[in-house]
């Protein structure tokens, strides 16, 4: 009997030890070892997976800048241009190989994972924060390690969010400048980085509001109040206008409502500020927050604009970044999931809420969920289990933002929950606004460009609302983390569709593209590139529509302005301009892409004239290679 009592006491002591380890801390050595394993896991996959026109456009645009051209002025650039200048510098220093474009992305990833851990650590213990970092690792770079600007925007948003949180801790304005610099870098890489800037501006407005005394809802708004609310309204209008061309239930549920819910929180908060406060004092307080941040935003933006200012081509930059993208939506638009998708995540949110009120059944609910989660993980290769896990994960993004907005607007009456709403509003806002980058290309991968921010938002909201107790929240995070490592680490083409076996990879081109591709792809591109090089007496060829990878792999130059035809408003790769360019440049060999990814195929008349000019042909997969 004494032995049984001793064993029972020892078991309780062990349980308390494990609980303390989960809540308070993890040995630094364990954290460091885990981080190294994650970085090794991702680094070993850095040379895998490619989408030809993605890697091809990044490399080809970098080559054009390296040869002295300017984005937007000399060719139709897809993005703002900052990433292209970075890639050109990499090619100039390290040599022209696609793998080099992925190195700085991986370097930022190595910083991003500890950043996620640091943000999560504000709300949860070291073990759970480490789990959040593992989730961020599993659902990002291993899925598709190409150096796409959307990955950079995710990393910059996390770094900028950490800087804004650091400002809350120290009150030093330099952290606002740093947060602004990351916003400016986001815009310099891709114009949708402006969503991050708007999210932080709303946070700064909320920050000023939280420093003021509360009052009942004001019956009338002084001029300053109306101005501040006008800023929020303009933000909402900007969101609506950006998706107005493709208005539908999917965009409303997944994109508009989450972002507008954040705006509504700030607007509602403004209505509760005491009207006795001097408006001038409030404006000065707002400016002390906004000006350092916007100064930081301006630095990278001015830097990217400098070459255009010097060459007198600033109008080309503005047209290419602000105007031209509106004409491209018809060619690139893919809707986000149907609003019915939200039903896959709703039971999880309801379970979170039910556990708070039905505490007697909390353990039973937790145990039941763990059993279901374990079964889903074991059966993850089956289509139904995969779809259930993926759809619920994607549905939780907008739902957790809604929950966060509601949570920030009501009093939960839980004294144990942290009452500082400011960092919660920041994370909810970043998740909602960075999530807008899913428009107009709402594929599963584009959700992953924002999903770590949704996870951090969930951690903050669950903790703030007092919903964190028990096993369920940690088990849910663990399920998605394990699912990411075990079942999602496949191809971007099958992501969110179903599980596919790990493919066999071979090196595309040891000299210019040390990237693993499918053997059939490698053979196809090797054959096409060999023919273009063999039959080209000059330095130019034509490959298109939408085949920039052939210019890069062949080392031959592009006689048109187009990386993708739908981006080039001048039509330089269509009809008479194309035929004239081929004649003027003395092009001897071409490759016609009969299955372009985004742009329409070449017109039959143009194809007929090309066939007359280039009489010899060989069809290789989707490419028709012709020469004279």
Structural account:
This protein is mainly α. It has 25 helices and 6 strands. The protein is globular. The strands form 2 sheets. It has a 4-stranded mixed beta sheet, sandwiched between helices. Helix content is 62%, strand content 4%.
Set down the secondary structure blueprint.
Layout: H1 2-23, H2 28-43, H3 52-66, H4 82-94, H5 103-121, H6 126-138, H7 149-170, H8 174-189, H9 194-210, H10 223-242, H11 249-270, H12 279-310, H13 314-323, H14 329-332, H15 342-357, H16 362-378, H17 383-409, H18 422-434, H19 444-448, H20 451-464, H21 472-486, E1 506-509, E2 513-517, H22 519-535, E3 542-544, H23 548-554, H24 575-584, E4 589-593, H25 604-613, E5 616-620, E6 623-627
Parallel strand pairs: 3-4
Antiparallel strand pairs: 1-2, 4-6, 5-6
Helix pairs in contact: 2-5, 3-4, 3-23, 5-6, 5-7, 6-21, 7-8, 7-18, 8-9, 8-12, 9-11, 9-12, 9-18, 10-11, 11-17, 11-18, 12-13, 15-17, 16-21, 17-18, 17-20, 18-20
């Amino acid at each position: 009997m004494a032995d049984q009592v001793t064993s029972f006491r020892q078991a309780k002591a062990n349980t308390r030890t494990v609980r303390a380890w989960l809540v308070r801390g993890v040995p630094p050595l364990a954290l460091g070892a885990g981080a190294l394993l994650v970085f090794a896991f991702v680094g070993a996959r850095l040379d895998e997976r490619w989408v030809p026109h993605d890697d091809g456009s990044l490399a080809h645009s970098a080559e054009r800048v390296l040869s002295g051209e300017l984005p937007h002025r000399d060719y139709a650039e897809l993005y703002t241009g900052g990433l292209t200048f970075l890639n050109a510098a990499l090619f100039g220093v390290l040599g022209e190989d696609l793998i080099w474009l992925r190195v700085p992305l991986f370097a930022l990833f190595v910083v991003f994972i500890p950043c996620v851990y640091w943000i999560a650590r504000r709300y949860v213990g070291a073990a759970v924060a480490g789990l959040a970092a593992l989730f961020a690792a599993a659902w990002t770079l291993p899925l598709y390690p190409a150096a796409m600007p959307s990955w950079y925007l995710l990393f910059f948003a996390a770094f900028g969010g950490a800087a804004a949180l650091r400002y809350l801790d120290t009150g030093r304005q330099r952290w606002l400048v740093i947060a602004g610099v990351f916003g400016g870098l986001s815009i310099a890489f891709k114009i949708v980085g402006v969503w991050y800037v708007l999210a932080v501006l709303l946070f700064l407005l909320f920050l000023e509001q939280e420093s003021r005394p509360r009052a009942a809802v004001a019956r009338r708004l002084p001029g300053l109040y109306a101005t501040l609310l006008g800023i929020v309204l303009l933000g909402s209008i900007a969101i609506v206008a950006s998706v107005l061309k493709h208005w539908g239930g999917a965009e409303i549920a997944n994109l508009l409502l989450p972002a507008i819910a954040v705006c509504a929180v700030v607007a509602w908060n403004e209505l509760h500020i005491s009207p006795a406060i001097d408006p001038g004092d409030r404006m000065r307080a707002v400016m002390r927050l906004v000006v350092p941040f916007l100064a930081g935003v301006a630095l990278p933006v001015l830097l990217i604009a400098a070459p255009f200012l010097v060459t007198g081509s600033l109008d080309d930059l503005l047209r290419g970044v602000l105007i031209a993208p509106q004409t491209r939506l018809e060619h690139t638009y893919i809707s986000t999931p149907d609003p019915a998708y939200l039903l896959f995540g709703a039971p999880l949110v309801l379970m979170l809420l039910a556990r708070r009120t039905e505490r007697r059944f909390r353990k039973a609910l937790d145990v039941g969920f763990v059993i279901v989660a374990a079964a889903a993980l074991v059966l993850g290769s089956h289509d139904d289990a995969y779809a259930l896990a993926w759809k619920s994960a994607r549905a939780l993004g907008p739902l957790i933002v809604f929950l966060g907005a509601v949570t920030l607007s009501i009093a939960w009456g839980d004294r144990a929950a942290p009452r500082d709403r400011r960092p919660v509003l920041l994370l909810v806002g970043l998740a909602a606004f960075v999530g807008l980058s899913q428009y107009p290309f709402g594929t599963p991968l584009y959700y992953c460009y924002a999903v770590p921010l949704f996870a951090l938002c969930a951690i903050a909201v669950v903790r703030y609302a007092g919903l964190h107790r028990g096993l369920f929240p940690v088990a849910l995070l663990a399920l998605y983390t394990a699912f990411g490592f075990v079942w999602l680490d496949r191809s971007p083409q099958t992501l969110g569709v179903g599980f596919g076996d790990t493919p066999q990879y071979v090196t595309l081109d040891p000299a210019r593209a040390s990237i693993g591709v499918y053997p059939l792809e490698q053979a196809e591109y090797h054959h096409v590139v060999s023919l273009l090089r063999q039959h080209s007496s000059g330095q130019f060829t034509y490959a298109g529509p939408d085949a920039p990878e052939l210019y890069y792999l062949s080392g031959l130059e592009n006689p048109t302005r187009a990386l993708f035809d739908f981006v080039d408003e001048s039509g330089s790769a269509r009809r008479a301009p194309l035929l004239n360019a081929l004649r003027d440049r003395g092009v001897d060999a071409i490759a016609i892409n009969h299955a372009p990814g985004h742009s329409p195929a070449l017109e039959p008349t143009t194809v007929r004239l090309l066939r007359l000019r280039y009489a010899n042909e060989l069809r290789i997969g989707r490419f028709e290679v012709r020469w004279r």
